[in-house]
Amino acid sequence: MPKAKGKSRRHKYSYNLNRKRLYRSARRRAAPRIACSHIRHAWDPHKSVAQNLAEMGLAEDPNKAVPIPKKLSVSGMEVESDGQQLGKKIVRKPYVVNEMELEASLPEKKSNTLSRDLIDYVRYMIQNHGENYKEMARDEKNYYQDTPKQIKRKINVYKNFYPEEYKNFIASLKPEKMEVQ
């Protein structure tokens, strides 16, 4: 099968093409990546970043938003000058800041949990051996061959994560031991 014509021909480099300008214009058109959903919904792509943030009541530059007062010396005394803002901007979208403050005031969810296997392991060990960690280390259910200190640490982690559940579990074990005696 013959080769396609023109494929093996050397391509000429175009010296007149300004590649930097093409790259810059493509970058300039891209919208900024916004992480906060409240800002993303209120964003106007036809306005600049400074205009959008000013309408929402947010600061573009934190150094300009909260200026450090300069100290002036007048007849030996130091007097603080007030940072005057030239041309206050009208906040047209105050709901953005209100929603962000509301979201920030919500309490954090406790996302740390223990695996069900670890919980079952710790409960089994406490149920069968009580506080005897050396006996726990020799138990056949100790698959990972934990040392007595490692088992004690796992039990303490369980106590810290689920203090109420641990108290209820220990309380449920005491009647069983009384019946045995």
TrEMBL record:
Keyword list (alphabetical) reads: Nucleus
Q: Coiled-coil segments, which residues?
A: none
| Nucleus listed as a keyword | yes
State if Lipid metabolism is listed as a keyword.
no
An example Gene Ontology cellular component term from the record?
Answer: nucleolus
Q: Which domain of life is it from?
A: Eukaryota
Please list the GO biological process terms of this entry: ribosomal large subunit biogenesis
Name where it's found: Nucleus, Nucleolus
Family the entry assigns:
Belongs to the NOP16 family.
Q: Quote the protein name from its UniProt record.
A: Nucleolar protein 16
